[in-house]
Amino acid sequence: MLGTQFLQILFPGLSPAFALGIFWILLACIVWGSAGRIAWFEALGIALVSCAILFIFFSGHPGVLFNGVPIAVPGNFFLPFGVIIFALAGWTSVEPVYELVYKKNASSGTSISGAFTLFALGTAFAGLLYWLFAAGVISSVPHVATDTISGIAGWPVWRKDILAVVGFLSIAVVSVPIAREIRGAIEKDLGWNSYLSRSAIIFLPLIAVLVGFKDFLVIVGLAGGVFISTQYLLIISVGRRTLALTSREKFLLDLVALVFVCAAVYEIWHFVV
User: Fold this and answer.
1) Cβ atoms of residues 263 and 242 within 8 Å
2) CA angle, corner 147, sides to 145 and 148, nearest 5?
3) What is the pLDDT of residues 162-181, one digit of tens each?
4) Burial class (CB in 10 A: 0-12, 13-18, 19+), 170
């Protein structure tokens, strides 16, 4: 959905259907060819996303952002629950970071706890980027849209074009590690062949858009609150059954699991019921 909108910013004459088809074909080619660990490609994706967010932040007027804005609205406390989980989910980085630290530990004797430090710093960095993004958007548009893109209609053409180019490349690059991790899970755990797994990754998102899932906020909320929460609940369940944990550690795991259960129930109630 966002890739289609970025293309329409760059080429205003494109119809939504034609822009969707072009972006889907480009993305399908990238996903089909994604194999192996391409660390520099992932680093490029992070750099592009960071540049896009910094550009939005410094293009706005963040100094006057929170004038007259309440610090907290109790009724909206849980509103972005699933979106936050989706935004801060770093599951595609867990395996490569662990392997990197494990190899370093094996060769030099450093502590494996360094992986947890990297995860914490990465999450903090992602949280900072999202805050800068929100600050930049809120301070530079007359109204905030759920998809962000339609809210920047009043921007100068050159600024919108820069954002569209960086955003377009960011989505394409970030899709590679995500597609690779999904392929690995489907092929290793479910035994699917490579052609079937790639076809599922390429066609299912397109089908979801074509049947009517076009509200960006709803999709991200459901993806984070339901699907990612379910994934983490399964990980917690496996860890609880296979690791030698103390009663205190099991209790802490149960508390974390409760957060994900609440996220899933809330998102289903809020967006579906």
Assistant:
1) no
2) 60
3) 888 878 877 877 777 778 77
4) buried
